[in-house]
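Ticket #4471: structure output looks truncated?

Reporter: J.K.
Steps to reproduce: submitted the chain below (153 residues) through the standard prediction queue, then opened the result file.
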Amino acid sequence: MIWAADWAWGAFAAVALIFFHVSALFGMSIAVFHETITQLRARSLFMSVFVFSILGAGAVLTHALEAASWAALYCYIGAVKDYPDALLHSFGAYSTMGDPTIVFEKKWRLILQIESLSAAVTLGLTTAFLFSALNRLQDIIRHAHDKSEKLFH
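Returned output as attached by the reporter:
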């Protein structure tokens, strides 16, 4: 079976990196929605924008670490000898743009597709997380605004 190693390495990497991704999103959520930070955000629209920007930067960093991990795996298994090329390929897979200038041998096609599938899943998780976080931030701001209006009326 030509693709047995691809399945083994690809499935392991995909599951491990999706677990890492979900853990990172939960960690960001716990930090950002801590009671003390929530109180600060409720008082300042700027603070809410700043916190949401931190979430976005954290998501980008998480995806970058995952792409770097895939690139390291490609070097480890011998799919590519040049780490910068592997990294460029992985960033292409994570951004869904791809990079036609980097060519892998035919025998590595399956693991490349597994990476793309893993990237699509984590991009979807990130999108859902950021959408949910934005809704939660809007609720906090709305609640603080309603509360302050009641105090002055």
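Triage note (M.O.): checked the attachment and the full token line is present. The two ends are 75 Å apart (CA to CA).
Status: closed, working as intended.
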